[in-house]
Amino acid sequence: MKLITAVIQPHALERVTDSLREHGVRGLTITEVVGSGSQGGHTEVYRGAEYRIDTIPKIKLETLIDDVDELRVIDWIVAAARSGNIGDGKVWSTDVGTVVRVRTGEVGVAAL
């Protein structure tokens, strides 16, 4: 099993979740996060004073999937989140050892 993690622009969330649901991906965890990367921060002016904001708001999306779906799910996320501009985000996968559905006790792929 794989944990697919994507950090994307907030405005891309609806497109990404719609794409995943259309392809049958269930069980998403969505978190509002802030961070910095190649996009860097930006400068804003508040009441005449200029200040630098080093972190940018992003959305972190996570889903557990079967190994055979790894590349397809990543492709769907990338296609839906890509604007072609710096700061579109990152997607990565991580190996998952064991998954248990708490309600039923199902283990492995059955727990997804």
From TrEMBL:
Positions carrying O-UMP-tyrosine are Y51
SUPFAM superfamilies (alphabetical): GlnB-like (SSF54913)
Query: Mind telling me which GO cellular component terms the entry cites?
Result: cytosol
The question of whether Phosphoprotein is a record keyword is answered with yes
* Pfam families linked to this entry: P-II
UniProt cross-references to SMART domains, sorted A to Z: P-II (SM00938)
Q: Name one GO biological process term.
A: regulation of nitrogen utilization
**Which keywords label this protein?**
Nucleotide-binding, Phosphoprotein, Transcription, Transcription regulation
Presence of the UniProt keyword Phosphoprotein in the record: yes
Task: Give one GO molecular function term.
Answer: enzyme regulator activity
Assembly information from the UniProt record: Homotrimer.
What protein am I looking at? Nitrogen regulatory protein P-II
Q: Which organism is it from?
A: Tessaracoccus oleiagri
